[in-house]
Amino acid sequence: MSSRPLVRLARVLLASLAACAFAALAQAQGLPAEVEAALARAKVPREALAVLLVDAQGNAAPRLSHRASAAMNPASVMKLVTTYAALDLLGPGYTWSTPVFLEGAVRDATLYGNVYLQGQGDPTLVLERLWLLLRRLQGMGVMSIAGDIVLDRSAFTLPPTDPARFDGEPLRPYNASADALLINYKSVVMTLAPERSSNLARIQFDPPLAGVQVQTSVPLLAGDCSDYRGALKADFSDPSRIRFGGGYPASCGEKTWPVAYADPASFSVRAVQGLWQEMGGKLAGAVRLGTVPAAVAAAKPAFELSSAPLAEVIREINKYSNNVMAQQLFLTLGRASALPDGTNGEGGEPLRSGSFEAARAVVQRWWKERISASDAPLLENGSGLSRQERISAQALARLLQVAYASPLMPELMASLPISGVDGTLRRVKSRAAGYAHLKTGSLGDVVAVAGYVHASGGRRLVLVALVNHANAKAARPAIDALVEWANQNN
Question: Can you give the C-alpha Rg of the chain in angstroms?
Answer without folding.
Answer: 26
